[in-house]
Structure formats: structure tokens, C-alpha cells
Amino acid sequence: MVATVVWLVFSARERHLRITHETIRMMIEKGQPVPPELFLDPKIVKSRNDMRKGVLLIAAGVSIALAFHNVAWRLGLIPLFVGVGYLIIWRIQGHPKNTSNPS
To answer: Which of 92, 65, 94, 97 is nearest to 81 (CA)?
Structure first.
């Protein structure tokens, strides 16, 4: 089961890279300008993703803790602390002040 999930993740990532490279190659062959967005630094995107993951996991942890406050509120601590970890990573790596893609 785990091997299947890992294979799916790597296959999707490889397919995305192959399509991106093919698109760039075709644009160069046709003499069209290649948009700089295709060459964004993955660290900037990852930094933004760490912040987003952290906030979402903290919210999920608090929600789980509140929903199961009488029975199993400790389950909410797992995503909460993972989310705090993502925010710490985001802060340590330094976050970009200006990105071209605000989403």
C-alpha cells in the first residue's frame, strides 16, 4: 500500500516535470519567449507551502481537539504540533517578501 502511494507521488512529479520540459522545448523551437514563471525557484514555492501546511494543520489540530474535547482531544495535538513544526521550518528558512504568484 505504502509503495503504491510513493510510486504514485513520484510518477505524478516526473510527469509534471516531463510536461514542463516539453512545453519549454516547444516554445523555444517555435521562437516564442519562455515566461519566467516556468523557472521559479522551488525553494520559494516550498517556503510558501510550509506556511500554508502549518496553518492548515494547526487549524485541523485545534478543530479535532475541540470536537473530541471529552474523549480523545489528545488526537488533535498531533496535527497541531506538526503544523507548528511547519511554521518553524518556514520561519527558519526565511520567507520571501515578494512573490509573483500570491495564491
So the answer is: 65
Q: Does the pLDDT at position 103 exceed 50?
A: no
Does this model's pTM top 0.85? My answer is no
Q: In the numeric block, which cell numbers belong to residue 75?
A: 488526537
Write 75-84 long-range contacts (CB < 8 A, 24+): 82/57, 83/53, 83/54, 83/55, 83/56, 83/57, 83/58, 83/59, 84/54, 84/58
Q: Do the Cβ atoms of 86 and 53 come closer than 8 Å? A: yes
